[in-house]
Design a protein that fits this description.
single chain, alpha+beta, Butyryl-Coa Dehydrogenase, subunit A, domain 1, Butyryl-CoA Dehydrogenase, subunit A, domain 2, Butyryl-CoA Dehydrogenase, subunit A, domain 3, 4-stranded antiparallel sheet, binds flavin-adenine dinucleotide
């Protein structure tokens, strides 16, 4: 057993850290204030090879795994979770899914374009009536000559506005057994009938664009069906195991931001003639934040390591997401408290971290759903 990062992982961490400090740090507050999509940062991330990190080399990527993406995503999310979630969805919900479940032709057609950033991927599962109850889909794909006709509305789609490729889940047999009647489809933005709906005005992650997606009589060629047309829900859940590692890594990044900002502030801010960090009440908060960050990083890396090894990992992925997101929210709360009144203003980044942290407990399975998954495995 070895807890050290390999040389390769250290290299990814260092290059992601350098990139994040140079390309994300200076713009994160503006991106949040203006709700502007960080397209320049994404273009640079693509140039650095981050968008294709988990895509096999034969399709233009780096051929690395979940542990590598966890290390990368912690670094990106340290400075900008809007960029972090865009890349997490692209990489862990779309690229990895096509790589695992796609045909050779689908991989050849889409993975190089996703790896290069020519196309950004979006994952379309949620619908107005199907949130936590994700099998309760109304979006449907009807069999037609040579392919499928897609109709329906998806909610809360990360990168809905900018994506070039949507992985869409739809009912293929309305009389079929729940959860066994769903297909997964690769839908290009340029297909007729693909419409971007309303953009959500959000509490946090304001640079990431979250939209409704409407599919109106979209004709899909047969070769754009991923899987067998009835195992889409199985694909969706399997893919979410990997996605949860991504969101847990996002939580680590925001948690670390809270710790680092608070540590600095507790050295700078003086009250009663000394830095507030010398008061035990503050020092203990910092100790707790640092300890839970370290513990959760190990859990997240273990989940990634299990998935990379092809071992059963659903329970541990949910544990990692549950624990890291809860700890991140507690760290954000403590960070604002340590900053006092200053933490309640936009002068200090912890105000933004506090808002950004909330989402980690909601998407890719809310906290209660992670508990449901874990308890079923006990
Ligand atoms: C910013 C953002 C980005 C997103 N990006 C995407 C995306 O790219 N693609 C996509 O498909 N979806 C996306 N989502 C959707 C997200 O995954 C859902 O919001 C999430 O799964 C929760 O569903 P819901 O919002 O409908 O909440 P609900 O399911 O209505 O849940 C409401 C509350 O009830 C609780 N609850 C529900 N069922 C149970 C139960 N059985 N036991 C106990 N408690 C329960 C939940 O934990 C939650 O606290 C995104 C959401 C947001 C906010």
């Amino acid at each position: 057993m070895d807890f050290a990062l390999t040389e390769e992982l250290e290299m990814i961490r260092d290059s992601a850290r350098e990139f994040a400090e140079r390309a994300l740090k200076p713009h994160a507050a503006r991106v949040d204030a203006e709700e502007s999509f960080p397209d320049q940062a994404l273009a640079e991330a693509a140039e650095n090879g981050f968008l294709g990190l988990t895509v096999p080399e034969e399709f233009g990527g780096a051929g690395l795994g979940n542990l590598h993406s966890a290390v990368l995503l912690e670094e990106l999310n340290r400075w900008d979770p809007s960029v972090g979630v865009t890349i997490s969805v692209h990489m862990s919900l779309v690229c990895s899914c096509i790589n695992k479940w796609g045909t050779q032709e689908q991989k050849e057609k889409y993975l190089p374009r996703l790896a290069s950033g020519e196309m950004i991927g979006a994952y379309c599962l949620t619908e107005p009536q199907a949130g936590s109850d994700a099998a309760n889909l109304k979006c449907r794909a009807d069999k037609v000559d040579g392919g499928w006709k897609l109709n329906g509305t998806k909610s809360w789609i990360t990168t809905g506005e900018q994506a070039g490729l949507y992985l869409v889940y739809a009912v293929t047999d309305s009389a079929g057994r729940r959860g066994h009647n769903i297909g997964a489809f690769l839908v290009e933005r340029v297909f007729d009938g693909v419409v971007v709906g309303k953009k959500e005005a959000k509490l946090g992650l304001r640079g990431s664009s979250t939209t409704e997606m409407i599919f109106e009589d979209v004709l899909l060629p047969e070769e754009n069906l991923l899987g067998d047309g009835s195992n889409g829900f199985k694909i969706a859940l399997d893919t979410l195991d990997g996605g949860r590692i991504g969101i847990a890594s996002q939580a680590l990044g925001i948690h670390r931001a809270c710790l680092e900002e608070s540590l600095q502030y507790s050295k700078d801010r003086q009250q009663f003639g000394k830095p507030i960090g010398e008061f035990q009440a503050i020092a203990w908060k910092l100790a707790d934040m640092a300890t839970s960050l370290e513990a959760n990083r190990m859990l997240v890396h273990k989940a990634a390591w299990l998935r990379d090894a092809g071992e059963p990992c659903t329970k541990v992925c949910s544990m990692a997401k549950l624990a890291a997101s809860k700890a991140c929210n507690l760290a954000a709360q403590e960070a604002v408290q340590i900053h006092g009144g200053a933490g309640y203003t936009k002068e200090f980044p912890v105000e933004r971290h506090y808002r950004d942290a909330r989402i980690t407990e909601i998407y890719e399975g809310a906290t209660d759903i992670q508990r449901l998954v874990i308890s079923r495995h006990l």
